[in-house]
Write a structure and sequence with these properties.
TATA-Binding Protein; single chain; 6 helices; 5 strands; 2 domains; alpha+beta; elongated
Length: 165
Amino acid sequence: MRIQLKLFDRVNHYSIVIFFLIPVFLFVFLDIRSFLLRENNSIIIDEPIFLLLPLAFASLFYWLQYSRLNFKIVNTPLSHKEIRSRIMRIANQEEWVIRTNRKNTIVAKSNPGFLSGSWGEQITVIINGQNVYVNSICDLDKRPSVVSFGRNRANEMKIIKALNH
């Protein structure tokens, strides 16, 4: 199960991939233009590294960003009420701002300080019976970010630990 993103959030989340694909599109466009104008200067044929290197980075970052949308699944014997109580306790302790608070869904945002190494995180928890789905990604409402310096994993582990104890 993965987080479903709206169009703008998807563009924000995958912006690093788009960044690496810009040179690829540019070189392909220039080669098509060169072919149509009957010029004999193909960038792709002459210097394939200019195409392959950005494609490799784009593929790597696509896989990385795609995998970050996967939920961690926790199976717990706790009641629905106790699960929500523990999640809300962590949210209060960590000073997360609750953005969505429905019966089975909690979405919170963190606002760390400037020196934390992160613009902020979006923490999503979905309760489905005894299964709890947990995810933390870089905040989509703030600047695009590829790294959180371990904050996303730490957020997920706090919730998982609280549900297992």
